[in-house]
Amino acid sequence: DQASPGLLLWRSLLQWLGGIGFIAMAVAILPLLRVGGMRLFQTESSDWGEKVMPRSHVVAKYIVGVYLLFTLLGALAYHLTGMGWFDAINHSMTSVATAGFSTSDASLAAFPPATHWVAVVLMVLGSLPFMLYVSTLRGNYKALLRDQQVRGFLKLLVAACLLFSGWLWLNSDYAWNDALRLATVNTVSIITTTGYALGDYSQWGDFAIMAFFYLTFIGGCSGSSTGGLKIFRFQVAYALLRANIQQLIHPRAVIQQKYNGHPLDEEIVR
Fold this sequence. Notes:
Layout (H helix, E strand, L loop, with lengths): L4 H29 L22 H25 L4 H12 L16 H14 L3 H8 L5 H4 L1 H23 L5 H16 L14 H10 L15 H19 L8 E2 L2 E2 L2 H4 L1
Antiparallel strand pairs: 1-2
Helix pairs in contact: 1-3, 2-3, 2-4, 2-5, 3-4, 4-8, 7-8
């Protein structure tokens, strides 16, 4: 709270630039280096086969444009919910970057409840693959809905938010609306590796502490600004486990492992 505005803005800028750098590394650099399954998400392809754009530098421009657009819209939304412009710009940069620095020691708790829902939306947007936003802009309007990783991530978010909301509502004096808001902000913040705080979830009981601990290992989607283990790795591991169980039941069967409707290469699975 006592830091100078210049220092706060510099800190937010570092996180914002780090977020776009993280996306660029995931969609451009790691696939070229053939690192750990990242060839599933080649720069020029959103689903391995369909060309999105001919040149990688054009893709980069689109990604930066989407990133900047989310940041500007986020700052406007924060301002409309009651934040001053300085706070709104800083929080928008660190929300889209899923990085979580706030201009207040109390983090999001220092601002009106409406800002908390804006933060949730921006954190989720920053956690989805930016290549699929590019595909959507290029006319493939079902790119996000069809993607197995996105669907799995959103299902996990909804299930975890409802679980913690119900737990908090039953084990505290909060009304359902407040319990839903508190649980959703904290859950999304943890799963997206953002780090915004709203209240102290360690006071919610042993179950919440244990469950939140395990959620810290999960990140968002590949090609997003989030950290952590990406959702697609859990999905590929599940596909491998399911195939092995089927092989035990039917030893002579030829079982093909698939992801997003495409066969999984054995080297990628390893």
